[in-house]
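Appendix B, Record 12. Input sequence as logged:
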Amino acid sequence: MRHELALLALVGTVLLCGSAKAQKGAPDTALPPRPAESGTTATPGAAKPAKTPGNALPTTTASAPAAPDSSAALEFSWDIWWHFHQHEFLDLRRRVHAGVLLPKQQPFDPLLPALVARAPRPTPAEIEGVVAPRLLAIGVGDGGGELVAGALMGMARVGARSDRIPGAPEQQFLELAVASPVRGIAETAVLALGILGSERALDALGALLCDDERGRKLAGLPAVPYRMRSLAAYGLGVIGQATGSQRTRQVVCRALTGALDAAAAPATDTQVACVLALGMTPLESDPSHSASAAWYSRETQLAYLQVLAERPESGRLVRAHAWASLARLARDAAPEQREPIARRMLASLADPGLDPLARESCILGLGELCGSAGTPADLAAVDALFAILRGGTASEPDAARLALVALAGRPAQSRSYEQLLQRVRERLLSDTHAPAARTRAWSALALGVLEARLLRSGRRAEEPVRDALRALWKRESSPDVLSACALALGLCGDREACAPLSECLARGGDDALRGYCALALGLCGDSGAAPALRTILRQSTHRPFVLESSAIALGLLGEKAVVEDLLAGLGESLSQTSQGWFALAVGLVGDARALPVLVERLNDDKLTRRSRAYLAVALGMICESAAAPWAQPISEHLAWRATSETLYSGSGQGVLELL
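Logged structural output:
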């Protein structure tokens, strides 16, 4: 079922781990059983990953590497979209770090905050003196593949993502780990170099990507495996997206285009990673050098990607991602750069022979590139998107809804914008009555996303939209549609919906629906729901989606006591699966109070290595100041169904399946 939250993947495999004795490239053992749902038992054999990706952790076993050009399909569903875009609406890290922490059991004193209060976020001294050394010690220890890989991912988070300049020992250790005989540790180290955020890692990542003499020496192999090359490309993209330096971005783009243009073309998997990383690394505009190298300016970067997108020899996966990267880079470019690309997308959509994956990228791209100014290109794009809603195939109508919501979600002071907004709303409201449950669910989510963006821009809430969503809630029977409707009501900030949402949450039943009800209560700002949410959180030891959603809701409400509840649950949990769920929930909404507990448990060698791996990652998550997860730039505006193995494998070995 689609709504299983990513935490169900905790005991599944991750990208990055092999048998502790396995050599890189050697076959790995079978996947472990999938964790059991409440009231069920795990099925022996190969693990089946949760549908919602993004929360896999290192284990001591992993599936055998797939062929370089193989992949699993990532379904274009509303909850998958939400999973990768929720941070735009939650702003969870800022809310968790807001306010102050006070000692418990202190009498009220108006002077107390000034005397003893502290910020919720760990201080630089705590990160530098406690967290980073402990993770480094775990990483260099003999703790086994999954624990070391967990420590590497935790360590990567306490670098630039925690407003900290990583120390030389950390980078040196990661570079040494690239040569680990354990395939999973080596791959984790490559990706961690990018997440760490140190520009000193550019040379190492570039060498690994290009498979040159230095890269082979770093890997300790006669040739750098395609997976490591792909992960190096993603790591370069993470650095390129985060930096504000044009020179650094040029270095990143030069390495990426160099790999793509090499005489010996890399595997399709690596080409996809390079194209995605290019889209994550926006160069500055310089029209005077439009004929320079592809890595020189935004103009040359866009021209290079357009060639890849339109050239049949590029292959269907590369072309689909090239169109997506073009849209990402052109959306904030000058009109003279943006409009020709939008026209090329429209022309491509008119071609009946265009590959379906490229079609979806072009549909989504129109939502990024076009506007509401009423120009001929804008009007043609809107008409094309509505035509796809009426007669598109497969997931094209869903992509068209997202594109129209992107257009209507950017308010403008013009009559043409108001006409567009009315037209989009009317169509989405009509589609909440559609015969297909999938259409009703997508339309509900689209309405919620649109209203949330408009509210954020300062516009007033649209009561007819809230009324329509409440009416859908009353008449709907599909748990999937109800889940989307609950989320949409939360995104609209509809306080009138809090009572039925609370009733559904308390009633029990479908865990996905209950989780979205909890999240909606947090989005609505219903502080009166906090006691019930705390109770449900404590009762959800074996219900990971409800647990995580309740924790996030309490974090959105500013309920600092949620950390104490999660730490208590962590201490009381007897299974490594439950310990992992609680540890990662602490990582999502935890603050400085959790550091001593997590460090103490991380030092406890009586716990399983897997449980300690969860704790290591949670430590890094708490220290982060970055608003969004490290992988969001990869998943943002993605060509969803054009998946490659290191992007999304379906077995926990892709970057979109990791914490």
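The CA atoms of residues 160 and 197 lie 5 Å apart.
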